[in-house]
Amino acid sequence: MLIRKAPDIASSEITPHSLYLNRRRFLQGAAAGAAMLAMPSIGSRLLADTPQKLQFSKWPGSTSEKQTPFNDITHYNNFYEFSTDKNGPATLAQNFRTRPWTVKVEGLVNKPKTFDIDDILKQNPLEERIYRHRCVEAWSMVIPWVGFPLANFLKQVEPNSKAKFVEFTTLWDPKQMPGENSSVLDWPYVEGLRLDEAMNPLAILAVGLYGQALPNQDGAPIRLVVPWKYGFKSIKSIVKIKLVDKQPVNTWYRSAPGEYGFYSNVNPNRDHPRWSQKTERRLDGAGFLGSGHRIPTQMFNGYGDQVASMYSGMDLIKNY
Amino acid sequence: MAMRIRWSKIAVFALCTAPFAWIVWRAFAQQLGADPVNEITHFTGDWTIRFLLITLAITPVRRLTRQYQLIQFRRMVGLFAFFYGCLHFLTWVVLDKVLALQALGDLHFGSLMQQMGLDIAKRRYITVGMIGLGLMVPLAITSTRGWIRRLGKRWQKLHRLIYFSAIAGVIHYFWLVKADTSLPRLYALIVAGLLGIRIVYWVQQRNRKQRASAPAAGAA
């Protein structure tokens, strides 16, 4: 059941989206030109977007657990493209350009295509999905994402029968992403899913959170969210999606194969070599002095009913 | 003169407690960010290593700058390294192990000891961290005037254990970071420098002794 949220403003006040974009691009161009002549710092502040409100329906499967405050979701980010410091991306990603932006979908598909982000936003009905988000570092959040099923998106390019896996790639642009100048990881960031995982109804491409366009530090303009896997699988700022026949080598696996596997399903029975995964620090601003609270970690992050069947017969300790 | 030293000691003491006051204030003001437990763990660990480095820096600094009275502060700074090390240890025990067992509904003395023992045995960064802290225990105990008198020359030898404590601290840090080793590398470089300069001092001293004991006419 999809219930459309009533728009906040009268329809007469709404500028047609294409016109809005054209006007926006013109203003951005003018501002950028002025900025070149004047002070670059002021120029870039002019370019910074005011949060763009999104139209979406409410997905019925959302969790009712207490949501992590917006400020914590936007100031505690593992986004090594900007910084290895968790509150670094919030400032370093401020001037990250998310327009123009395209997502190239290629590989073992019948209809390869490069999508413009604004077309993606127009063509895919958005839903708000409140998911648990479990980081491999044993902390977790509850995040109201806005996005759409990855399956719907992939169907548009018609994966052929040889396609077995999906490989995602983040933007590589060291000028904008200062962390990419360091060698902490192999850039660009790559993640992968088995095709059936990618087609699972829980897997979404997110374009927003808390009802507005994704903040830059959370993976704007478009990112993957696979809530039954550790957070690093949910790759950010995607520019390429490729359908392939071999299991992709994901970045963290390449960096430390004994610690971060291809599957990386949330699994309290398989410890990280350096810490236990049996419990997690739920960061929801509640608890003593707002320090959150410690809770047991659930298999598949509590999404077993929807995903466990994909792994039946598999040894999930070996295939971590 | 005596008064001046006393006042400066109070000032250094206050400076050494500042990081502790800072983290307590931030905790109560709820300014520890999204993940306070993680922040407290890293903060106390960071300051343990920093105080170990400051302690090790006092000897070379007083020799290089000829500010020999700096020795007055070495014991206190060393004890603060131990203090922050204990806070770091307690953070691990209470905010990590105890809370985890409580969440699993299995908190009692036996399970706590077992979980701590397993962690120390299984995870090498915890093993080496415990060694580093453990080495500081005899140093803290024998830091009193009575013990200095009782141990005489052996006191200095015993307190060279701090070299190994600092090395253990840096290895502990190296082994626990995920990918970005820039800070542990910096600490390692500083420890190497501070221990390297001691080797230079030791060689110089040996040469001087040899020259002094040689039956050369130059000594006359």
Structure in words:
The complex is a heterodimer of chains A (320) and B (220). With 320 residues, chain A is of the alpha+beta class. Chain A has one domain: Oxidoreductase, molybdopterin-binding domain (Sulfite Oxidase, Chain A, domain 2), CATH 3.90.420. Helices cover 20% and strands 21% of the residues of chain A. Chain A contains nine helices and 13 strands. In chain A, the strands form two sheets. In chain A, strands 1, 4, 5, 8, 9, 10, 12 and 13 form an eight-stranded mixed beta sheet that branches. Chain A has a five-stranded mixed beta sheet with strand order 3-2-11-6-7. In chain A, α1 runs antiparallel to α2. Mean pLDDT of chain A is 88; it is low at 5-27 and 29-48. Chain B has 220 residues and is an all-alpha fold. Chain B has one domain. In chain B, 82% of the residues lie in helices and 0% in strands. Chain B has nine helices and no strands. Chain B has helices at 2-28, 36-65, 74-103, 109-122, 124-141, 145-151, 153-159, 161-176, 182-213. In chain B, α2 packs antiparallel against α3 (74-103) and α2 (36-65) packs antiparallel against α8 (161-176). The longest helix of chain B has 32 residues, at 182-213. Classes of the chains: A alpha+beta (320), B mainly alpha (220).
In brief:
The complex is a heterodimer of chains A (320) and B (220). With 320 residues, chain A is α+β, with helices and mostly antiparallel strands.
Alpha-beta content class of chain B: mainly alpha
Q: Within the CATH hierarchy, at the fold level, what is the topology of chain A?
A: Sulfite Oxidase, Chain A, domain 2
CATH superfamily of chain A: Oxidoreductase, molybdopterin-binding domain
Mean pLDDT of chain B comes to: 91
Q: In angstroms, what is the radius of gyration of chain B?
A: 21 Å
Overall body shape of chain B: globular
Mean pLDDT of chain A: 88
* Integer tally of domains of chain A: 1
Oligomer: heterodimer
| Tally of helical segments of chain B | 9
Structural class of chain A: alpha+beta
Largest interface, per-chain counts? Answer: A-B, 34 and 22 residues
The N- to C-terminal Cα distance of chain B equals 38 Å
Show unreliable segments of chain A: 5-27, 29-48
Low-confidence stretches of chain B: none
Label the CATH architecture of chain A.
Alpha-Beta Complex
- Count of beta strands of chain A: 13
Strand content of chain B: under 5%
CATH class call of chain A: Alpha Beta
How far apart the termini of chain A lie comes to: 35 Å
